[in-house]
Amino acid sequence: MSPLLNVTTHSFTDCQAQAAALAERIAGGLREALDQRGSAVLAVSGGSTPKALFDRLSREPLDWSRVHITLVDERWVPDTDERSNARLVKARLLQNAAAAAQFVPLYTGAESPEAGLAEANARIDALPRPFDAVVLGMGDDGHTASFFPGGDHLAEALDLDGQTRVLPMRAPGAGEPRITLSLPALLETRALYLLVTGATKRDVLADARLGLGAAQHYPVRSVLSQTRAPLSVYWCP
Ligand SMILES: O=C(O)[C@H](O)[C@@H](O)[C@H](O)[C@H](O)COP(=O)(O)O
Questions:
Q1: Cα–Cα distance between 225 and 220 in angstroms, integer?
Q2: How far, in Å, from the CA of 33 to the mean position of ligand 1?
């Protein structure tokens, strides 16, 4: 399949409908994994966009005790910090039925992502693969996961032949030091979703697809142009 033809877009008139549809689809994939393989792995992004999705997904009836939930990336802060993605997942996804899920955080308590890297890699390497669902977000600068423009490990993270599945990332637009799953690690999944909202991100995504001007350097292009995992884009106003 050629790049970009690997992308299906689902547009919704409101974001609650988007969250409900994606929650139902992810839950269906997790149930199938549990039926066929006895366990499932879901990797999610942080930020603000996934909150409505998490609220819906947390109520889906399935055997969450056999589901591993981990993060696509993390700000290198403890889960008591309001910037923590683990904090967001615990507050909004590990609730209701999904409270029984097995959460695998990326933050290890080490002084830096570089110091915690071996432990974080060990945690991710211990998970069944391929994952069953990966949920990405996107920033207005065209970053996804912690693939930020100008990131110190960006080239390594986007290397489809790279062997390291978790990498540190420091970048001008990233805020705190970050830790992120690499592109090949994120693409090793049965289902790949990109969740975006609003007109600005709609336009950023359109530019990224065209790859003209600055948009040719948007890191999200690496997800749009790959052919390893079919990508479903979910958009609402
Ligand atoms: O740690 C993070 O921030 C995320 O993993 C990141 O990749 C996020 O998906 C985008 O920055 C969009 O964030 P919003 O949903 O807040 O716009």
A1: 9
A2: 27
- Global pTM? 0.97
> For residue 130, is the peptide bond before it cis, meaning its omega torsion is within 30 degrees of 0?
yes
Q: What is the pLDDT of residues 108-119, one digit of tens each?
A: 999 999 999 999
d(CA 161, CA 56): 36
| β pairing state of 166-169 and 178-181 | antiparallel
CA–centroid distance, 84 to ligand 1, in Å, is: 11
ipTM over 0.95 threshold: yes
Block residue for tokens 């359109």:
206
Between 161 and 4, name the one with better pLDDT. Answer: 161
Q: How far is the CA of 37 from the centre of ligand 1 (A)?
A: 30
Q: Which two tokens stand for residue 133?
A: 């669902």
User: Strand (E) positions, 116-163?
Assistant: 133-136
